[in-house]
Specification:
The structure holds three protein chains of three kinds. Chain B is of the alpha+beta class. Chain B contains 17 helices and 29 strands. In chain B, helix 5 packs across helix 6, helix 9 packs antiparallel against helix 11 and helix 15 packs antiparallel against helix 16. Classes of the chains: A mainly alpha, B alpha+beta, C mainly alpha.
Chain lengths: 328, 631, 307
C-alpha cells in the first residue's frame, strides 16, 4: 500500500526537481544575456580594433541569435558540456569537477562536526531545561549563529593567523610546497592545516541550529511511553538519556545534516571568499565578476543541482521514515 | 560517557595534528626560487590570442619569446639611434641599430641580428625566424595585441614586406617611415619557425578549401592558431623560446613555476643601468608565481616571509618599513584615469560646465584621503612620468584650493556663463574668501532656459574598486552641493564599456564617465586614437573618442604627431595637443597609479626597479635576469 | 476587519506579556532591540549636533593628521571620535548609528513584506488545499526553495552593476516568503477541518470571511514568529552581499563598513573599524531571533516542530 504511493511520490519529486533545475538555468541564462556588456567588452583595450573584437565574439559564439544560443545552451547542459571558460580557456565541466571536491570536503566536514557538537550540547540542554546551562548555551549559540560568517572568519584569521601565526591565511594548499611535488602525507597534512580555520568558522556558526533541533526532538522523545517506562523502572538518568532518549532523537538531526550541507554550500560563497578556499562558491563569485558566463552558469548549475538533489533526498527519506507524512 | 570522551579526544588529536604541521613548512626545499604573487591568474600562454592581453600573461610570454629591440632599462637616451623620436631603445636580439635607406619613395630598413642567439632546443635563431614572425603579422594579423603598432591607418600595414638577406640580416620595406616602427615591428616577439610553421600550415590547410572571402579566411586561420592551448595541446616542456625563464609547472588558478634557462644566450652580457654595469644571469633558480585571492592575504604571506616580492597598499607601508629585511620601492606608472564628458549632451557641451566640474573634483584631497597616495594627481593627458612628452605648463584647475573654495569657484564659473538657480547656493565669505557652504544650491537652470537633467556619473562599483566608488560619491556630493543634480551609478566595467564604446555605430550613451582608465605606453601615439574626430564610436566601430570631441585643428596636429620623425618637432606638436585637451576638457585627466612594491633584500640582491614599470612585470624583464641570491 | 486584527493582537499581547516578561531569553532580546532602536533614532541627531564632518558617507574630519601606524586617517577611539575614524577620516560612530538605522529598515521592511506575502499565499493554499491553486502555489514554493539564494543574488547584482537598497529589498521579499507560506499552509490545513469552521460554513459565511475572520487570526502568532526569523536573515544577507561589494555604495550599512575596511586593507590594522559593524549585525539579528524564539515558546509550546 505504502509502496504505490511512495513510488509515485518519488517520481513526482524528481520531476519537480527537474522542473526547478530547468527554471533555474533558464533564469540564469537570460539574466546574463539580457544585461548589456559581454566578455568582449571586458577585454577592451585601446589597441584593439573592432575587427578583432568581432573575431573574438565569433569565436565565443556570441553572434548567434539569442534563442539559438539558448537552444545550444540547453543541449549542452544535458550533455554536461557547458562550454569553455573564457578565463581558463578550458572546459567548464573540467573546472567544476576540479573545484567540487574542495567544496564538498569543507562543507561536509563542517556539517558533520557541527552536528556532533550540536547533538552533544542539545542533549545537555534538553535534559536541563530552564536551567542556567540552557540559557547560557542558548545565548552563546545564538550569538554565533547570528554572527556574519565572513566577519567571524576575518576575526579568526586576525587572531590565529595574523597575531599568533598558527594557521595559513587562506587557500587550500601551500603552492610553494606543491610546486615541488611533495609526498602524499605531506599533501594531506598540508590540506588539513589549511582546512582548520574555515572548518572552525563554519562549525561555530552553525552548531546552534543542530543544538536546538536536538533539544526539541529530545524533549519530544522524553515524553514517549518507553522513556517514561524506563524512568519508572528506576534506571539511572544517564542511561535513559544516552541509551533511550538520545538515540531516537538523533534521527531528525541526521536528516537535517544533509540539508545543512546543501544550505551551507549555497551560502558558502562568503566563507570561500574570506578564506580564499578554491571551491565552487568562490569560483562563482570570481567568474561573475569577470563575466565569464559559461563558468558562472556552470557553477550556479552545480550549486542548484546539489541543493535540489539534497532537498529531494531529505523529503523522500523523511516520508519513508515518518509514515505520518502524507504524500500530497 | 564513552561517547563524550571519544569526541573530546578526537578534537584534541585533531588540534595537535593540525598545529604540528607547521614545522612541516621547513621541509620546503631550500632553494633560490624567486617567489612572487598575484591576485589574478595568468590568462594564457598562447602569444597570439587577443584575450590573453593581461599584463600577467604578457610578462610570462615575454620571458619566453624575445624581441629584436628593447627599451633600455633606465630609459636612458641611446645616442646610437640617429633618427629615433625617442632615443630609448637598445638592440637585444639585433646586433646593432637599424640602418635606414630611402629607395624609390619607399623606405628600407636593414636589421642585423646576433649570431649567438639560441632557442631552448639549441637551434640557432636566424633571419628565417624573424621573417616568419613578421609575416604572421602581415598575413594573419597575429599576435593581435601588437597589431595597432604595425598600422597607422586602420587596416593598412605600413610595413610592405620583410625579406631575408642572409642568415642574419633582414630587410624591412616600408611604405611610410613612422616613429612607431621602432617600437612596434622592431619590438615584436620573435617565434621559432620550426615550432610554429607546422601549426600555421595545418591551420591554412584546414581552411583553404572553405568558400570564404580572403579576409574571413585569414581571420579563421588566425583564430585557429590562437586557439592552440599552450600548456595542453602544446605541452609546457615542448614550448621553444629563447628567453631566460622556461615554464615548467602550471596549475591554473594556483601557481606557475618557471625554471631558469641556464644556457641563456645572453648570459654574461653586460648591460648598463644608471651607469652601473650588470652581468646578465639568470642567477636565481627560477620564478614561482602564486595566486592568492586577496591583497590582504598577500600582505600576510609577505609578512610571514613566504614570498619575496609583492605590491602593497599604502596602509601597509609603515609595517614593512619597520622590517629590516625588506625594502619598499614606489613607482609611478604611466596610466591615465579621467573624467570623460559626453559632449553631445547638455550641459556637458558647455565648456564652462566642464570647467566647473574640473574645479569641483578635488583630486589632491581624494588622493590624500581616499586613495592614500595610491593615485597621484595628473594635470595632462600625458602623465608627468612620461618626462620627455609631458607638457608641464598646463592649467591645474584648482590645485591647492580647498573644497569650499573649489565649490565657490565652480559656482562662479557657472554663474558667469549664464547658468541660473531656483535657489542659489550660499557661501559664508570672510575676507573675500569662502569659508563655509551655508545652504545648498537647488535646481540649476542651463543657459538655454531648461532645467538640468539628472546627470549620471558612471563609476566602478564597490565590488571592483571600492575606493574609486568612494571618490565618485564625493564628486556626486560636491556637485549636488552647488545644485547640479548628479548621481553616481555604480556600473561594472563590461556594462559601462557597452554604453560608452558601442560597437554598432550608435551614439555613446552616458553623461559622465569615470570607469575607464588607460594604461599607456611611452609613445604618445594614443593622442590621435583617443580624440581624433574620426575615432568617434558613431563614425567607426570600436572608436575610442567616446566623448565625441571634434576639433579639426586637433585632428590635423594629431595626424602630424604620429608621422613626424624629428623628435624635437614632434615634441612641440605633442605639447600643443595636450594644451588643447587641457583647455577644452573633453576629458579631465585625474590620476595615474602609483605602485608600491616591497621586496626581500635579505634573500636577493640587485633588485632593479624600472621607471614607470617597477620591478618585474610585462615590460621589465631585466630585473629577474640580473637578480642575485644573497649568500 | 482591521479593527478585529488589532483587537486580536491586543488580546494576544495582554495574555502573553506577563509570560513573556518572565522569559529571560526574550527579555534579553527586547533590551538589545530597544538599545539599537535608540541608536537608529540617534543617528541623524548625532550628525546634526556634530556638524557635516560627521556625515556617515562623505563626511571627513579635515583636522586629523595621518596616523603613522596605518598610514591613513584611521585613528583609534578618542574623545572626539568615540569609535575612532576610518581611513579617510570619517567618524565610525556616526557610521555605526547609520548602520543600525539601515539594519532596521532593511530587516523590518523585508520581514513584513515577506510575511504578508507568505501568509496570504499560505492561507489561500491551505484553505483550498488539494485544488489546482494549492498545487500551483506549492510547486512555486518548492522550486524557489531549491534555488541557491545568495549565489543568485550575487549574479543579479553583478549583472545589474550594483543594487540599490530598494531593489535589494524587493528581491529579498520575493525570495523569503516561501518559508512562511509553507508553515501557514500546514496550519491552515489543520484548522479548516475544525468544528467551528464547519459551523461557520453552515451558517452561510463566505469563504473570504471564514479565511480572514476565523482562520487568519489563528495563524498570526505563527507568522509573527517567522517574521522575526526573517529579520535576522535579511540583515545577514545584506551584510554578506555588501561585504562582497555588491551593496549600495551610497548607503553606509554595516556590511558596507566591513567591505570598505577590507578594501582599504585595514582589517588587521584597525580593529576599531571592523568590530562595531560586525557586532552590530550580530546583536541586532540575535535580538529579533531571541524575541521570536521566546514568543514562539509561549504561544505555541508544542506547535513548532522541525521544519
Amino acid at each position: 500500500m505504502i509502496h504505490v504511493g511512495f513510488t509515485k511520490y518519488i517520481t513526482r519529486r524528481i520531476l519537480e526537481g527537474i522542473i526547478s533545475l530547468f527554471v533555474v538555468i533558464t533564469i540564469i541564462f537570460f539574466l546574463f544575456r539580457v544585461m548589456p556588456g559581454d566578455p568582449v567588452s571586458m577585454i577592451l583595450d585601446p589597441k584593439m580594433t573592432p575587427e578583432m573584437k568581432e573575431m573574438i565574439r565569433n569565436s565565443y559564439g556570441l553572434n548567434e541569435p539569442i534563442f539559438v544560443q539558448y537552444g545550444i545552451y540547453l543541449k549542452n547542459i544535458i550533455t554536461l558540456n557547458m562550454g569553455n571558460s573564457f578565463h581558463y580557456s578550458k572546459p567548464v565541466f573540467e573546472i567544476i569537477m576540479e573545484k567540487l571536491p574542495n567544496t564538498l570536503l569543507l562543507f561536509t566536514s563542517a556539517s558533520i562536526l557541527a552536528s556532533v557538537l550540536g547533538i552533544f550540547l542539545g542533549r545537555i540542554i534538553a535534559w536541563k531545561r530552564n536551567s542556567n546551562t540552557e540559557y547560557i548555551l542558548s545565548v552563546v549559540g545564538l550569538f554565533f549563529y547570528n554572527m556574519p560568517l565572513f566577519w567571524l572568519g576575518l576575526i579568526l584569521i586576525y587572531i590565529f593567523s595574523f597575531s599568533l601565526g598558527l594557521f595559513p591565511i587562506g587557500g587550500m594548499i601551500d603552492y610553494q610546497l606543491w610546486s615541488f611535488n611533495p609526498s602524499i602525507i605531506e599533501k594531506i597534512l598540508d590540506i588539513l592545516h589549511h582546512l582548520f580555520l574555515p572548518l572552525i568558522t563554519l562549525t561555530v556558526s552553525s552548531f546552534c541550529g543542530m543544538m536546538f533541533l536536538m533539544r526539541t526532538s529530545m524533549v519530544e522523545t522524553l515524553k514517549e511511553d518507553y522513556v517514561i517506562a524506563a524512568k519508572a523502572r528506576g534506571l539511572p538518568d544517564k542511561v535513559i538519556r544516552n541509551k533511550y532518549a538520545a538515540r531516537n532523537a538523533e534521527l531528525p538531526v541526521i536528516t537535517a545534516l544533509i540539508l545543512g550541507i546543501s544550505g551551507s554550500i549555497g551560502g558558502g560563497v562568503l566563507t570561500e571568499t574570506v578564506f580564499s578556499w578554491p571551491g565552487i562558491g568562490y569560483e562563482l563569485f570570481r567568474s561573475t565578476m569577470e563575466r565569464d558566463y559559461p563558468l558562472a552558469q556552470g557553477c550556479f548549475f552545480m550549486l542548484s543541482l546539489i541543493t535540489i538533489v539534497s532537498v529531494i533526498v531529505i523529503d523522500v527519506v523523511y516520508s519513508y521514515l515518518d509514515p505520518r507524512i502524507s504524500y500530497d | 560517557m564513552k561517547f563524550k570522551i571519544l569526541i573530546v579526544l578526537l578534537v584534541i588529536i585533531f588540534f595537535i595534528i593540525v598545529i604540528a604541521i607547521n614545522p612541516l613548512s621547513n621541509t620546503k626545499k631550500n632553494n633560490s626560487y624567486l617567489r612572487t604573487s598575484g591576485i589574478t591568474e595568468i590568462k594564457g600562454l598562447n602569444p597570439f590570442n587577443p584575450s590573453f592581453n593581461d599584463v600577467y600573461s604578457a610578462s610570462i610570454q615575454r620571458n619566453i619569446w624575445e624581441p629584436l629591440y628593447k627599451y633600455s632599462p633606465d630609459f636612458s637616451e641611446n645616442h646610437e639611434i640617429k633618427n629615433s623620436p625617442d632615443k630609448r631603445i637598445i638592440p637585444w636580439i639585433a646586433k646593432e641599430m637599424p640602418i635606414y635607406n630611402e629607395v624609390d619613395n619607399k623606405h628600407e630598413v636593414i636589421v642585423k641580428i646576433r649570431q649567438d642567439v639560441y632557442w631552448w632546443d639549441k637551434k640557432k635563431l636566424t633571419a628565417d625566424d624573424v621573417v616568419f614572425s613578421g609575416n604572421l603579422m602581415l598575413n594573419f594579423g597575429i599576435p593581435v595585441n601588437d597589431r595597432s603598432s604595425w598600422q597607422i591607418i586602420e587596416g593598412k600595414y605600413y610595413v610592405d614586406k620583410i625579406e631575408k638577406i642572409d642568415n642574419f640580416t633582414i630587410k624591412y620595406t616600408l611604405n611610410e617611415l613612422v616613429p612607431i616602427f621602432q617600437i612596434g615591428p622592431l619590438m615584436s616577439m620573435i617565434f621559432p619557425k620550426h615550432q610554429w610553421k607546422p601549426i600555421v600550415d595545418k591551420s591554412i590547410k584546414k581552411f583553404n578549401e572553405h568558400e570564404e572571402t580572403d579576409i574571413n579566411k585569414r581571420n579563421l586561420i588566425a583564430n585557429e592558431i590562437w586557439s592552440v592551448d599552450v600548456g595542453k595541446d602544446l605541452k609546457l616542456n615542448e614550448i621553444i623560446g629563447s628567453g631566460p625563464f622556461k615554464p615548467v609547472n602550471w596549475k591554473q588558478g594556483e601557481y606557475m613555476r618557471m625554471d631558469s634557462n641556464h644556457d641563456y644566450w645572453a648570459k654574461g652580457r653586460i648591460i648598463k643601468i644608471y651607469g652601473k654595469e650588470y652581468e646578465i644571469g639568470p642567477y636565481i633558480d627560477g620564478i614561482l608565481r602564486m595566486v592568492y585571492k586577496s591583497s590582504d592575504t598577500i600582505n600576510l604571506v609577505m609578512k610571514n616571509g613566504d614570498i619575496d616580492i609583492t605590491s602593497i597598499q599604502p596602509s601597509d607601508i609603515s609595517y614593512f618599513q619597520k622590517n629590516n629585511n625588506m625594502e619598499i620601492k614606489t613607482c609611478t606608472r604611466n596610466s591615465l584615469f579621467f573624467i570623460g564628458f559626453n559632449l553631445r549632451k547638455k550641459p556637458m557641451s558647455y565648456l564652462c560646465f566642464r570647467q566647473s566640474v574640473s574645479y569641483l573634483y578635488n583630486k589632491e584631497l581624494l588622493n590624500d584621503r581616499v586613495f592614500h597616495g595610491r593615485l597621484s594627481p595628473i594635470y595632462s593627458v600625458v602623465p608627468y612620468v612620461n618626462e620627455y612628452w609631458h607638457n608641464p605648463n598646463l592649467q591645474t584647475y584648482g590645485k591647492g584650493m580647498n573644497t569650499i573654495e573649489r565649490q565657490y569657484k565652480a559656482f562662479n564659473i557657472l554663474k558667469e556663463c549664464g547658468f541660473d538657480w531656483k535657489t542659489e547656493p550660499r557661501f559664508e565669505i570672510e575676507n573675500e574668501k569662502p569659508i563655509k557652504l551655508i545652504s545648498k544650491g537647488i535646481d540649476i537652470i542651463m543657459p538655454d532656459g531648461n532645467s538640468c537633467p539628472e546627470l549620471k556619473i558612471f563609476g566602478s562599483p564597490a565590488s571592483e574598486v571600492p575606493d574609486s566608488a568612494q571618490a565618485n560619491i564625493m564628486l556626486q556630493e560636491w556637485m549636488n552641493d552647488i545644485g547640479i543634480p548628479a548621481k553616481f551609478i555604480p556600473i561594472d566595467f563590461g556594462t559601462a564599456t557597452d554604453f560608452i564604446y558601442p560597437s554598432d555605430l550608435s551614439e555613446p550613451n552616458f553623461d559622465i564617465n569615470t570607469v575607464v582608465g588607460w594604461s599607456l605606453g611611452p609613445d604618445p601615439m594614443y593622442l590621435k586614437d583617443l580624440w581624433h574626430s574620426s575615432h568617434r564610436p558613431e563614425m567607426i566601430s570600436g572608436g575610442l573618442n567616446a566623448e565625441g570631441y571634434i576639433n579639426f585643428e586637433y585632428d590635423k596636429l594629431s595626424e602630424q604627431s604620429i608621422r613626424e620623425m624629428d623628435p624635437k618637432k614632434r615634441r612641440k606638436i605633442v605639447f600643443k595637443l595636450q594644451e588643447i585637451i587641457s583647455k577644452e576638457i573633453p576629458i579631465f585627466p585625474t590620476t595615474t597609479v602609483t605602485n608600491i612594491q616591497v621586496y626581500r633584500k635579505d634573500r636577493f640582491e640587485d633588485w632593479f626597479s624600472m621607471p614607470t614599470y617597477g620591478i618585474g612585470g610585462a615590460e621589465n624583464q631585466y630585473s629577474y635576469m640580473i637578480l642575485k641570491p644573497k649568500q | 476587519m482591521i479593527k478585529d486584527y488589532i483587537n486580536e493582537i491586543k488580546e494576544i499581547f495582554n495574555e502573553n506579556w506577563p509570560r513573556f516578561r518572565s522569559n529571560k531569553i526574550g527579555m534579553i532580546g527586547l533590551v538589545i532591540l530597544i538599545i539599537f532602536l535608540f541608536f537608529a533614532m540617534f543617528g541623524p541627531i548625532y550628525v546634526k549636533i556634530m556638524g557635516p564632518e560627521y556625515l556617515p558617507v562623505n563626511g571627513m574630519d579635515l583636522s586629523l593628521e595621518i596616523n603613522p601606524n596605518t598610514n591613513s586617517y584611521a585613528w583609534p577611539p578618542s574623545l572626539k571620535h568615540i569609535m575612532g575614524t576610518d581611513a579617510k577620516g570619517s567618524d565610525i560612530f556616526s557610521q555605526f548609528l547609520n548602520g543600525s538605522k539601515l539594519g532596521f529598515i532593511i530587516g523590518i521592511s523585508i520581514a513584513i513584506g515577506a510575511t504578508v506575502l507568505g501568509t496570504t499565499f499560505g492561507l489561500i493554499s491551505g484553505y483550498w488545499g488539494g485544488t489546482l491553486i494549492d498545487s500551483c502555489i506549492m510547486r512555486i514554493v518548492d522550486i524557489m526553495i531549491c534555488i541557491p539564494f545568495l549565489p543568485l543574488l550575487i549574479i543579479i547584482s553583478a549583472v545589474s552593476g550594483s543594487m540599490n537598497l530598494i531593489t535589494f529589498i524587493i528581491i529579498m521579499i520575493m525570495f523569503s516568503w516561501t518559508g512562511v507560506c509553507r508553515v501557514v499552509r500546514s496550519q491552515t490545513l489543520s484548522l479548516r477541518t475544525r468544528l467551528y469552521i464547519d459551523s461557520a460554513k453552515a451558517t452561510g459565511a463566505s469563504n473570504c470571511r471564514i479565511l480572514f475572520k476565523h482562520i487568519a487570526p489563528n495563524v498570526i502568532p505563527l507568522s509573527f514568529y517567522e517574521m522575526t526569523m526573517i529579520v535576522g536573515a535579511a540583515i545577514l544577507t545584506e551584510a554578506g552581499l555588501s561585504f562582497l561589494g555588491f551593496g549600495d555604495p551610497t548607503q553606509m550599512s554595516w556590511g558596507m563598513m566591513i567591505n570598505y575596511c577590507r578594501a582599504q586593507s585595514h582589517v588587521f590594522k584597525s580593529l576599531w573599524w571592523i568590530l562595531p559593524s560586525g557586532l552590530g549585525i550580530t546583536f541586532l539579528s540575535m535580538a529579533f531571533y531571541l524575541i521570536g524564539r521566546s514568543f514562539d515558546e509561549i504561544v505555541n509550546p508544542r506547535l513548532r516542530k522541525r521544519k
